[in-house]
Predict the 3D structure of the following.
Amino acid sequence: MDERHLDELLETTLRDGREPEAASPSERLELGQAALGAQTIRSAAPAIEAEAEAALPVARARFERFVAANRPVPAARPVAKPSRRAWWMVGGGRPMAMVGSLAGVALLVAVIGALALSGGGAGTAAALEPGDYVQLEGVVSAATSDGGEQLVRVESDLGPVDVAVSALTAVGLPGGRIAPGTRVTIAGLVEAATKKEPRIAANAVSLANSDGATAAKPNLRELKKLKPGLRGVIVLFNLAPAGDSGWVVLRLANGDRVLVGVDAATRVQIAELDRVIGTSVEVVAGEGGRGFGLTIAGAPSAPKPGDGVAAEKLAGPIVRVLGIPTGMDGRILTLRTLQGTAEVVIKPATLIVVGQSGVPASAIRKGEFPSGITLGVAGRQDAEGRIVADRIIVERRPGAR
Amino acid sequence: MQGHDQAATGRDDPEALARRAVARDPETWGAIFEANWHGVYAFLRFRLSGAAEAEDLAAQVFEIAYTRAESFDYRGVPIEGWLIGIARNLLRDQYKKLARRGYQEELVETMTPPEPDAAPSVDLRADLLLAMKSLTEDQQTVLTLRFLLDKSVEETSRHMERSEDAVKNLQRRALGAMARALQGTAYAFGGGL
């Protein structure tokens, strides 16, 4: 039998849906079997399509994260304007009178006369607002207990901050004790306070592994113009409630502190890090003209011998899951992940970063999940195996509004 | 699975798209992902044991492509073809890993029907998966491109870098081999899913 002739007969059969008249009985038998085989494979296509569609949100989120983490460093260029919030902090974007009017609510940390690196002359007022997520490092100067809650004062690079430690706070310190003199890393949400110092509801308190000392007299300057090769260690990270602005304070090699407004991709990148404080970074040009970018130059050093048990072991390892929300029962969110179903506890102090998703954080708290979103959750497991969320990052494919 | 293909090119000619892809423009890569995810997934799915493995490998295809973006050389080769090429290489690596795990394990894996899929509404026929696995790599490729991704003979020939005559011959032999494999499992053709 001529192979080429049979190949052409089969092609005709596949195209027309029936064997050609010219085919012999034996050829028809072979062609019929082949055509049925092709049809059998085709019949699997809808199921595979459905499978691919079901896998798409998680895969898309994975790819978007990959792109964000591996994006090329753009060529250095001056940034037109720091983020609105960082601008406000140095008194450049809003009238200082507004700062005054917010004094009881917005928490004025320090007012330090300083110049921007570019040589500007604005007075600097670094502030944390209620609802901000913050990670910072400092030395405990006082610790008092009030019923079930412990109130700790921490001397940070921005000055003194009060930290509320509750039963929901993961405490990674030897004996679970927060003693004066201990250098700690705090992660939590800024609460409204009647005092001028900010009060932070802590998600986690752990031993600091940074070997840098808190500045005795904080001297904070804002970076206004990209300075090639500028490197430092993150000593404070601040993120606005919806994640739409954020900034870090870097400790430079010479001990100076620099406030750097960061762009959207960097905010997400940092928010996803397990340990932000102590991370070495280099400042690069940002994307979209709002804030700078950061490239990670080195992870925080491991806790030194003598620091006691590693903070992670005491507080429990950070667990990270990515999945599609499928339901909410009270504070318990159910996620469908690649590994199965996960239950996530949303605390009042859980940071929900909505980024560019267009989904309000309040909707997530209420269990209202628009289709097409995935949630990345970082937290620690409780005794029942649920993940008590420190951070939830809402992701959605671009344009899927 | 065809409807997704046009979105990648949409407003652009392929060359402009390729240029932006090489520059790692995030929006472009988002569009490339959206347009090609289903195709890459389908290409891999019938050649692996489970949905999770296919999803992971498909995700790796895009990650590798993005990482190697500057190596993409646009000379009439669509990005989809490049992605399928990466998928084929990944499959080869996967098979090598299986081979390294030893003959016995590989045999058990080959002969054991895949576990039921956890994904909703999907229950691929184990016998069809096994039949596909019994084919050579080229036979699997030609059947996947022609009948799962609905590519024409001409498109398939470009993907596989073979002549159209060679593709027609390969496809006939592949369908014959699959018929024999399915008959070996007492499978009646046309059963669907």
Remarks:
- Residues 1-10, 102-124, 185-193 of chain B have pLDDT under 50 and may be disordered.
